[in-house]
Amino acid sequence: KTFESLANNFRAIYQQYQPLMGLRMGTRIPLPKTLLMIFDFILHHDFVEALESEKLDLRKLDRLAGEMRRWSLPRDRETLGFVGTGTLGRLMENFSRDPEQLIPLKEICMLLRVFSALALPIDLWQAQNIFFAISENHVAMMQKKLKVGDEGAKRWLFKFQNLGRQLKIKVKTV
């Protein structure tokens, strides 16, 4: 209850002072450290909450990451990286259950771009293993579909290669 109350009070301060802080950014006036601490708390809290949500809101994560970069906040990179690693693993597990779907593949790529923009220390090991298993079972099939003109297979292979690059895995070109 106390943490929730503190978070609500900080959120009210964040919402009240965000426009004013935005105006001050263009000046040489230093931003108040207390307000920056509150901004850091709220953005970090919201980012973790969004990552842990059952339905991932990538637009919200991207917006929060942009705000974190905008204010040059110190970020608790280790916590965000830990939670982000769990989210990435969860998405990869879901994708592995039905790997022919393009939407989860796009979402994973977008999530990795958000992580990269914040330079978060994401442990890619689990995601790389799942990627490898999917590639062993589905790439050849998608390449066969591509040879008979399947545009969906072409998009899938392109996105899958992109995911491989983001996971730092060398992927054979299509």
Describe the structure.
By secondary structure, the chain is an all-alpha fold. It has helices at 2-25, 33-52, 58-70, 77-97, 102-117, 125-147, 151-166. The longest helix is centred in the first third of the chain and has 24 residues, at 2-25. It is elongated and about 60 Å long. The N and C termini lie far apart (54 Å). 22% of the residues are buried. The model has no long low-confidence stretch (mean pLDDT 88).
In summary, what is this structure?
The chain is mainly α and 174 residues long. It has helices at 2-25, 33-52, 58-70, 77-97, 102-117, 125-147, 151-166.
Number of strands: 0
Distance between the termini: 54 Å
Low-confidence stretches: none
Shape descriptor reads: elongated
Helix count from the secondary structure assignment: 7
Q: Structural class of the helix and strand makeup?
A: mainly alpha
Radius of gyration over alpha carbons?
A: 20 Å
Largest beta-sheet details? none
Q: Helical residue percent?
A: over 70%
Listing every helix as H and every strand as E from the N terminus to the C terminus, the arrangement reads HHHHHHH
The proportion of residues in beta strands is under 5%
Average of pLDDT: 88
